[in-house]
Design brief:
41% of the residues lie in helices and 18% in strands. It is of the alpha/beta class and 350 residues long. It has a domain of 232 residues: Rossmann fold, CATH 3.40.50. The strands form 5 sheets. A 7-stranded parallel sheet has the order 3-2-1-4-5-7-12, sandwiched between helices. The chain has a two-stranded parallel ribbon with strand order 6-15. The protein starts with a strand and ends in a 7-residue tail after the last helix. The chain binds nicotinamide-adenine-dinucleotide.
Length: 350
């Protein structure tokens, strides 16, 4: 199948493009390169531009009338930046997505797979969330994801009465870590703000150790708990969502959801791992020691949660296969080649 992949130059989008190609599909990448590197698009059909550029989207579909679905990854993703620049996040993530979705409707493109986030959930007492768990978005970034979901749900519902009824699956990602096991892509920023990036910076002496932010959470060791998912598993979840798109809605209907047109699905490993446990797994894979210290909670952080992945298993026929240790190993393997990969005119898709 040929699919439009917005944000296909990014960390998760480019890894998903590799997984799609491995499964025999053809990604058509649309990315502004505001963040993702151009090298991740090499060897692929690529359009540089913005998701809000209606003329460009019309041109892409005119030039590729055989596109059957849109995987929408493109977004601004840094939580702290979203707190400082909320207008940017609402404009790029929410308004940009609205323009994209309206153009897809105009073009009678009816299958959408949207990159949502587990950051929209509240942290419940049992630290486990399913798709009906209470929501509580703590940042403009998380709210932009929630708003886009709500908008997409409304657009899909309204389109059911038209000639081109749109349906969408919102994959709510938990915490992606690691890199493509074949090292075609991985985290590209030198100093990513997420936990593995900060651990890597500490291990390489580029940061003054690693601080566990919050050690008094109601978890088994007091540090925050997350659901770390190997990015390759996450990429495979998109392949599963694409290949089982109709089946997912049929399964939802059989399961008592009725005739829904919008389906949120958790994508996590299903296992909760505390920050201290992740640090231990990281140290086991790291050739150098990391100085670890305890610090206070960060404002806006919560104890966290892990995914109930029943829906992903039952509707998409997908479950995570890889371990945190495998994610760590791939992260180190990627880190060893990252600079070279990003500088060279690579043939990473070979
Ligand atoms: N990384 C995570 O931990 C995580 C967790 C949950 C959800 N997500 C979601 O997954 C998606 C991909 O995240 P990622 O980690 O690969 O981020 P990323 O920044 O690596 O990728 C996003 C890509 O979108 C592009 N982009 C941004 N705004 C654009 C626009 N207006 N038009 C066209 N292209 C644009 C960027 O250049 C970049 O290549 C995002 O939607 C993000 O919200 C990520």
């Amino acid at each position: 199948m040929k699919v439009l992949v917005t944000g296909g130059a990014g960390f998760i989008g480019s890894t998903t493009c590799s997984a799609l190609e491995d499964a025999g599909h053809t990604p058509v990448v649309l990315d502004s390169l505001v963040n993702g590197p151009e090298v991740f698009t090499r060897g692929r059909i690529f359009y540089q531009g913005d998701i809000a550029d209606v003329a460009l989207i019309r041109r892409i579909f005119a030039e590729h009338p055989d596109i059957v679905a849109t995987l929408h990854f493109a977004a601004r993703i840094v939580v702290t930046e979203s707190v400082a620049l909320p207008a940017l996040y609402y404009r790029e993530n929410v308004m940009g997505s609205l323009t994209l979705f309206e153009t897809l409707l105009e073009l009678e493109q009816t299958q959408v797979i949207f990159s949502s986030s587990a950051s929209i959930y509240d942290s419940p007492a049992n630290l486990r969330v399913d798709e009906n768990s209470p929501l509580k978005s703590l940042s403009p970034y998380a709210r932009s994801k929630r708003m886009t979901e709500e908008m997409l749900e409304d657009l899909c519902a309204a389109s059911q009465a038209t000639v081109s009824p749109m349906r969408a699956i919102a994959l709510r990602y938990f915490n992606p870590v690691g890199a493509d096991p074949k090292l075609r892509s991985g985290p590209y920023a030198a100093d990513p703000t997420h936990i593995l990036g900060r651990l890597m910076a500490a291990a390489q002496g580029r940061a003054d150790g690693f601080e566990i932010t919050g050690t008094d959470y109601p978890t088994r060791d007091g540090s925050g708990l997350r659901d770390y998912i190997h990015v390759w598993d996450l990429a495979q979840a998109h392949v599963a969502a694409l290949e089982n798109f109709d089946g997912a809605f049929l399964a939802a209907a059989r399961n008592g959801h009725g005739e829904v047109s919008f389906l949120p699905i958790n994508v996590g490993s299903g296992n909760g791992v505390t920050v201290r446990e992740l640090v231990t797994a990281f140290e086991a894979a790291s050739p150098t020691l990391v100085t670890v210290r305890s610090g206070p909670r960060r404002p806006g952080d919560s104890a966290g949660a892990h995914a109930d992945t029943t829906r992903a298993r039952d509707y998409l026929n997908w479950t995570a296969q890889l371990t945190v240790a495998e994610a760590m190993a791939s992260a180190f393997a990627w880190e060893a080649v990252r600079e070279e990969r990003l500088i060279l005119d690579l043939s990473i898709s070979s």
